[in-house]
Each structure stands twice: as structure tokens, then as C-alpha cells.
Amino acid sequence: MKDFFSNLFGRNNDPKSIISFDVIDSIYAYLYHEQNSIEFKMKGIHDTVSVNLYAFPTSLDHDEGKAQIEKAGFKNAYEVLNELYKKIDIGILSEEIIEQDLEYDFIHIQFYSEPGAEMKKYFNRVLNNFIIIFCCTNSLEINDFKILYSGSHFIDYIKGLLDTEYLDVNKPKNETQEIGIKDFKIVLQGICQYINIEIPESIELPSSENLIELEQVTSETFAEFIKLVSRGNIEEKELKKQSKKLFAAFKNEAKDYYEKVEGHFDFFESIDAWNSDWKFDPEDAEYFISEMIGEDLNFEYPEETFSHELFPYIQSALEKRNLELMTYDTHGDNYLFFVANKSDVYRILELAELTKIEVNQL
């Protein structure tokens, strides 16, 4: 049995927005009646989209959940729920209501996005957690929802919930939230496509693409990737050789990880790339990037600025040439830089996702 309480906001059912009750309720119905947890991949979103239906108190009725509740200073899951209700102006549960042992469902949607400019100094990807809590507006029946948001990993799930904050999708607090909300709209469209939910015609879809049918990876996929990351500066013979080699490694899923990484290194060394220690001087950056683009690059920077702190100044100088500095993630203490045409960056990231070559923006 489920019970929900009124809140102080208007109903979330903008007929044009995909972040609306009609869409969320359809997703909830699938999770409740068909499958309470789904994971899938979609275009435009890094890694996996995770969608889960949970309930207070039953989803936390296990030893780990009880320990986390106690650690947070609460006696039961309902007290945690009340803390969340306070954040979104929903009336808290009284002791009398708690004693009825009712269930209160919520949806947790999790996926990665690009960070905003400030966060990009420290992270290549940021995690989005959208916690959707149902409620009632001027009604005794469920007809509305509120969203709590967090960009942190939910290692301790109760702490993760308690660290969320109310999210007004029309008024993001920063650029990272703004990007997350934009991607959330695309993710909702992807969820609907994945579980065959018909989206109302009045809704303005965030994407006109088929979000679920991912491209088939072939040798030509790698050839396109190579052309873009090398900005076309590669001989046809070398292009064919490298694309076949990388595709063969891609198909061999059992291949040792480090052997694959060595293959990626070999590839980037075959094009114009800069393998640098994690700590480098401005003069190093100017010299090696000038070598890569075939012209002198000079940029302004504050004194005592080194390594990753130089990225904004490098990118500003390259942007004037419609270029962008990118890197292959070595998972080590070094960078493997290359320069791409700015207009190709989005496609490079798409191809990187497909080919499993870990390329990142800086």
C-alpha cells in the first residue's frame, strides 16, 4: 500500500516538457508492474544509465541499510524520508502515520554527464543522481513529484540521500547542474524508448535521434576515429593498418587490458601526439602543441601556473584556431595529448564510446 502527502508547489505537468508527471508516471508504472530495475546504454550518454524503483522502508530493510540509518542518527527509514520531505516542502509523516507501516516509493535515475567549465578542471565526467519523490498537489491521489539531486557517488546510500538537495529544473544552480538537466531530458526520452513507452505528442522531444540503437562497430568506425583525432594528417596506408589493428584488438575481448593500452599508445604515437608527464611547464605546452598544429602557439597565463592549471589558457588560444586539446586516458601519472578540430569533438567522443578508446575532454 502506498500513501503520499501534499506539497506546496504546482503540479509538474508542463505539456511540452518531457520532465512531466505523465512521463514520470508511465516510467513508474513500468518499474512497479514489470521490472523494478533497468540498466542500458544510449547515444549521447557516457557509460550506463541506471533506473531503479525503491521504497521506504522496504528497500532499506536489511542489515546494511539499518546500519546506515543508525550511523546517520535516525531510528528508522521513515525518519530519513521525513528529512527528504523537509527539503522539498512535503508534510512530514506523523508517528501515527508511521505506525501504519505504509510504503513510499521513489525512483533513482543515475548517469554521467560532462562537467561544467569549473568542474572540468578536476573531473572528466560527473555523476548525476536524480531522486524522484511522488506526492499530491491539491488532490488525494498521486499527481505530482519533486526531484532531489546529487553529483556524488552513493557509497553509503542513506548518506547519499541525505546529501541531496532540491532541484528546480528551470533554475539550475550552476553549469554542471544545467548540463545534467539537459541530459536528464534526453535520458528520459531514452528510457521511454528502451521500455516502449509512448511519449505524448505535445511533448517537445530533446532529441530527434534513435537513442537506443547504437552504431555497429566496424573497421570503418576506427578509420573515422583515426581521421578525426589526426585531423586527416595520416597516410592512407597507415590509416588502413591502424584501423585494422585497433578493430582486431576491439573484437578480442579476452585480450589483456595492458596489451590493449599499449596498442592505443602505439596508435597515438603514429599520429601527432604529445606524451607528457603529469607535471609540465607552460613552455613545454607551447613547444609541443606548436609541433602538433604546425604553427607557433603562444598563450597568456598567470605566473606560477603549471600542468592542468594551464588548460583553460591553452584552450582559449586553440579556440581562436577552431581547435581543442584532448587526451587519451592512460590511467597513469601521464598525459597523452592530441589536438582535434573543435567541430569534430562531439563525434570523437561518440566514437571513443563505441570503440572503447578512452578519450576525454580537458
UniProtKB/TrEMBL annotation:
Pfam families: DUF6630 (PF20335), DUF7821 (PF25134)
InterPro entries: DUF6630, DUF7821
Domain DUF7821: 23-198
Superkingdom of origin organism: Bacteria
Residue ranges of every copy of the DUF6630 domain listed in the record: 222-359
Name of protein: Uncharacterized protein
